Amino acid sequence: MLEIENVSRSxxxxxxxxxxxxxxxxxxxxxxxGGNGAGKTTTMRIILGVLASDGGTVTLDGTRLxxxxxxxxxxxxEERGLYPKMKVAEQIxxxxxxxxxxxxxxxxSTADLLDRxxxxxxxxATVESLSLGNQQRAQIAGALVHDPSVLVLDEPFSGLxxxxxxxxxxxxxxxxxxxxxxxxxxxxxxxxxxxxxxxVVIAGGTIRAQGSRNELxxxxxxxxxxxxxxxxxxxxxxxxxxxxxxxxxxxxxxEVDRGPSGEDAAQAVLRRALETGPVRRFAPVLPTLxxxxxxxxx
Length: 298
What we know:
This protein is α/β, with parallel strands linked by helices. The protein is 35% helix and 28% strand.
């Protein structure tokens, strides 16, 4: 488990990180989200040892990180860092060799990754000849080539089309499934919501929310329900303790107070619905990551 505890960092009088603490669990895909300037990249650079913190600790399995530990990490910066004139496979092999791999091991890992990422037929093309999306895939291969013990990716899905997102997602989740902690940042909240196990939301250099996807949705959900009937749902407005948010013929979204009285009111809606005829759907309405994000960064 990768643990960031009470990490702070200032640049001059500008305090960029203020007591940042969160964990990235083994085998977990952890989405790290925040607006521009929120502190995501600075946090990642401190994890990698590229920047020093002013205070706090970064540990792996309870032990402070050493340069040797960090040499086993995989990192993909937001900025493209490949050599444009090199051939793709040569570039990835070179990065593997920098991590101490033998030439044969680096070549084998490179060939496997390029095939899995859909770049097998571009192995001998120069990096600069690739589309921006394919350059992004090549950078991901470079972060993975040495089978890293921790994976830190800054905007890995930037510039990728939907099919490429699916390909990259598959490769990353396979790597996480081996027990590796994976931390990735992204502005594409729909992608984060779909693929992550855990979420960390940062704003203004402080952590505003963290937890599993389901935990956060439950914590930040209003007592809101949706009901879909086989007949008109207008009667929902007449029941005590119920506030209709949306009504469209046989479909309604309504809110109740939190707590036992609200739960009783919701169950009263369901009982009345069953008396009127078939109920196609009755379920709580959970917020999206985008809605949670807007709520916690206000």
